[in-house]
Amino acid sequence: MSARKQLVVNADDFGFTPDVNQGIVDAHRHGILTATTLMANGAAFDDALRLAKDTPTLDIGAHLVLISGESLLTGRPYPLSVPQLVAALAKREIRPYEELRAQVRRIFDSGIRPTHFDTHKHTHLAPPVLDAVARLAGEFEVPWVRRPFDFPLSAMRGAVPRLKRLTSDALGLMRRRFHRVLTRYGCRTTDHFAGFQITGRFRAAELVELLGILPEGSTELMCHPGHCGPALRAARTRLKESREHELQALVAPQVRAALARHGIQLVNYSGLSRT
C-alpha cells in the first residue's frame, strides 16, 4: 500500500549553468531532492549530461523553454518575458510544437528518456503551448506533465507576498481547460503542486512549515537549488543567492525530520508511475 502523502521534489533549470547543475545534484545526493528537469537549450547542457550519468538515481525530465536562450531550430533568441512570448505566439512568430519537439528530441538523442515535462516560466499555461506540450507527451510517451497550480498555502500567508497570492489565484482560473487538454492526450499530473508562490523565498523553516500542511495524495514541490558561483552570477535570472538558500533548505536535517514526523514518502516520477 502506498503512503497517504507522497512528495516529488523537482528542481527546474538543470543545464542552466554548471553551478546550478552541481547544486541540483548536491540537493539530491545529500538532501530530499528526487527529480529535475533538463533544459535542452541550456548553456550547461553537456555538463548536466555528465552529472546525470554519474547520478543514475536522479529522475530527469524535460524543462521546455520558450523564454530566454536560443532556439535549437533557428539559433534565434527567444523572447525575454511572458508578455513578449504571448505577442509572438499571437503573431505566429513562434511555432511551439516545432520548437519544443526539437528540445525533446535532443534530450532523447542524448540517451535520456525523460519521465516528466514542465516549462520555463510555466508557459504551458498558454493554450498553444499547452497543446504542444500535451501532444509531445503523447507522442514521446512521457506520462507526467506539471500542474502549476499551488494548493492553498493559507497557513503560510505571512511568507507569501500578496501579489504572488493573487497571481496564483488568477492562474487557477485556467485549471479546467488545462486538465481537459491533458486528459485528451492521456497525460497524468500529481494530485497537488507547490512552489510557485514561494519561489526564491523559502529556507528550511518555511519548508518545514510547508511539509506540515502537505495534503494527502501526491504533490510536486518545485524548487530552484544551486550554488551561486560566477556562472550563475553572470546569468540572466533573478534567482541567484536564493538558489543557495533553497539548496541549504533541501539538505537541512530538520526538513528530513519533518518528512518522517508527517509520514511523507519521498518519491520521483518513475516511482509514481508504479502506483
Task: Give me some keywords for this one.
globular, 8-stranded parallel β-sheet, TIM Barrel, 12 helices
Blueprint (SSEs and pairs):
Layout: E1 5-14, H1 18-30, E2 35-38, H2 45-54, E3 59-64, H3 82-90, H4 96-109, E4 116-119, H5 127-140, E5 144-145, H6 162-171, H7 175-184, E6 192-194, H8 204-212, E7 217-223, H9 230-234, H10 241-250, H11 253-261, E8 264-267, H12 269-272
Parallel strand pairs: 1-2, 1-7, 1-8, 2-3, 3-4, 4-5, 6-7
Helix pairs in contact: 1-2, 1-10, 4-5, 5-7, 8-11
CATH topological fold name: TIM Barrel
Helix content: 40-55%
How far is the N terminus from the C terminus? 9 Å
Total strands: 8
Q: Look at the helices and sheets and give the structural class.
A: alpha/beta
> Could you give a short account of the major beta sheet?
8 strands, parallel
Q: What is the alpha-carbon Rg in Å?
A: 17 Å
Order of helices and strands: EHEHEHHEHEHHEHEHHHEH
Q: What is the CATH level 1 assignment?
A: Alpha Beta
- Integer tally of domains: 1
| Number of helices in the DSSP assignment | 12
Estimated share of beta-strand residues: 5-15%
Uncertain residue ranges? none
Mean pLDDT over the full residue set: 91
Second CATH tier, the architecture: Alpha-Beta Barrel
